[in-house]
Amino acid sequence: MKLKKFMALPSGGPLDELRPNGGFCGIFRTIGCIGDSLSSGEFESLDEEGNKGYHDEYEYSWGQYLARLTGSKVCNFSRGGMSAREYCESFAEANDFWNPDKLCQAYIIAMGVNDLMGQHQELGSLDDICPEDPEQNRPTFTGYYAKIIQRLRAMQPQARFFLMTMPREGDDTPEREEQKVAHCRILKGLAEFFPYTYVLDFHEYAPVYDEAFKKRFYLGGHMNAAGYLLTGQMAASYIDYIIREHMEDFSQVGFIGKPFHNCGAKW
């Protein structure tokens, strides 16, 4: 058995090679996916009269594909149309998502489309975050997004967070691309602001979702089953890449959520 491939540091881009079994993403036994329709396996139907329907099919979500790849338990804290504001103001509480019994070792957050492009919410800045009390965060996208991290980290201090940027699309207008770049910039700022927080930069490293891509992986305005499977593979492979690049950051993952630690290793 050639162990070099398991010990090798990353070379090239984080999505240059997809890990068929999720690689080291599998060290997390529990993962929470916080997001909107694309995190919920939403399929778009269209009847003969031209009426569209939207259906969250969680078993087809990229999070559940990731679960089957790695053997980890993945929880969908998501719903079609979700925004960071709604998540904080009502959705999480109504669905008991702040329950300590539902805490995970790692979280993947994929939000921004509905917030910025659908509801035209103010993006905000890192200045909108109150480190001492998330309830005092300003009501901007950044303030609400940070509040999710802050509330979960208060309950699970050593949890790891992975923040997903928005991929480029072939038909993006200059304005939409500018919004995606600004969103990416904020997420990178949050990754520097909070400990053990990393960016899954799909905007930079995922393929462009152009006409050829959508013909294969989309069903209307949302992904098809193959698209969600591909996204699950990309998310797992990107996390594997990050772990390989920062192995010391993840040496005590097995103690997350437990009353133990190893003082001889990096927490």
Q: How do the helices and strands line up, and which of them pair or pack?
A:
Elements: H1 4-7, E1 30-35, E2 42-46, E3 52-56, H2 62-70, E4 73-78, H3 84-94, E5 106-110, H4 113-118, H5 141-155, E6 160-164, H6 174-193, E7 197-200, H7 202-205, H8 211-217, E8 218-219, E9 222-223, H9 225-245
Parallel strand pairs: 1-4, 1-5, 5-6, 6-7
Antiparallel strand pairs: 2-3, 8-9
Helix pairs in contact: 2-9, 3-5
Describe it for me?
It is a single chain. The chain has 267 residues and is an alpha/beta fold. The protein is built from 9 helices and 9 strands. The protein has helices at residues 4-7, 62-70, 84-94, 113-118, 141-155, 174-193, 202-205, 211-217, 225-245, and strands at residues 30-35, 42-46, 52-56, 73-78, 106-110, 160-164, 197-200, 218-219, 222-223. Helix 2 crosses helix 9 (225-245) and helix 3 (84-94) packs parallel to helix 5. The two termini are 31 Å apart.
| Helical residue percent band | 25-40%
**Strand residue content:** 5-15%
Major beta-sheet overview: 5 strands, parallel
Shape: globular
Unreliable spans are none
The termini sit apart by: 31 Å
Q: What class, by secondary structure content?
A: alpha/beta
Index terms:
two-stranded antiparallel ribbon; 9 strands; globular; alpha/beta; five-stranded parallel beta sheet; 267 residues; 36% helix
